[in-house]
Design brief:
By secondary structure, the protein is α/β, with parallel strands linked by helices. The chain folds into two domains: 3-132, 3-Layer(aba) Sandwich (NADH Oxidase), CATH 3.40.109; 146-215, putative nitroreductase (tm1586), domain 2 (NADH Oxidase). The longest helix is centred in the N-terminal third of the chain and has 18 residues, at 23-40. The chain contains six helices and eight strands, in the order H-H-E-H-E-H-E-E-E-H-E-E-H-E. The protein has helices spanning 3-9, 23-40, 57-61, 81-98, 158-168, 198-213, and strands spanning 45-47, 69-76, 102-106, 123-132, 150-152, 179-184, 187-192, 219-220. Strand 5, helix 5 (158-168) and strand 6 form a beta-alpha-beta unit. The strands form two sheets. Strands 1-2-4-3 form a four-stranded antiparallel β-sheet, with helices on one face. Strands 5-6-7-8 form a four-stranded mixed β-sheet, with helices on one face.
């Protein structure tokens, strides 16, 4: 499964089986987390066989079931934390999908104080990704019409269309898709709308865009 296939196949999954994450799957997942931390400066941590964080009312209310594994998305507080969390968290989520695992982005439906993750001074546990072998593969959620997610003056190149098709499939808080992409020549500017976790959503969408658009012929407008 390549990354485009993973983007299309990945859906939020909240119910998991008892199958353990081990062997080559576990090693590949750990390697990806280590690589993301090295590049980003984040302190993302894999928590295995730990059911306490999801043994609370909010988890039951959010319809989470049998969550014993999760990825704690942690980093130093600052203006870039949320977007970095989205970008690198989704990188790990899609790697998990390629490895046959399922995930769900979780902001509120777990107990932070019961998490097994270690949060150092100056850091923040922003969100987690529930993780495991899902009881099913999840279901597709309706997306906004793609033309509402971007603006272009003039001709729209093929790479931009492919990038936006991938960004359209990005998971976002409450499925709101509050992000917008603008093409300026060969530069792409991406911005977050207002609301909770929209900068996280922007990071996720930007990673999806890069997967769809490829690496050549364009750049991010800083």
């Amino acid at each position: 499964m390549d990354l485009i296939e993973a983007v299309k196949a990945r859906h939020s999954v909240r119910s998991y089986t008892d199958k353990k994450i081990e062997g080559e799957t576990l090693e590949q997942l750990k390697k990806t987390i280590d690589e993301c931390n090295s590049v980003s400066g984040l302190n993302i941590q894999l928590c295995l066989n730990e059911p306490d964080a999801f043994s609370c009312f909010m988890a039951r209310y959010g319809k989470f079931k049998n969550v014993k594994n999760y990825i704690a998305l942690i980093g130093k507080t600052g203006s870039q934390l949320e977007e970095k969390t989205g970008y690198y968290g989704e990188m790990i989520a899609l790697k998990a999908q390629q490895l046959g695992l399922n995930t769900c982005w979780v902001a509120m439906s777990y107990k932070k104080k019961k998490s097994a993750a270690k949060v150092n001074a100056g850091e923040k546990l922003l969100m987690v990704l529930s993780l495991g072998y899902g009881e099913n593969g999840g279901v597709h959620h309706k997306s906004k019409p793609i033309e509402k997610l971007y603006s272009v003056s003039g001709e729209m190149p093929d790479w931009f269309i492919k990038g936006m098709e991938a960004a359209q499939l990005a998971p976002t808080a409450m499925n709101q898709q509050k992000f917008h992409f603008e093409l300026r020549g060969s530069a792409v500017k991406a911005a977050a709308g207002s609301g909770f976790y929209t900068k996280v959503d922007l990071g996720i969408a930007k990673y999806h865009f890069e997967i769809g658009a490829g690496k050549n012929g364009w750049e991010w407008d800083k």
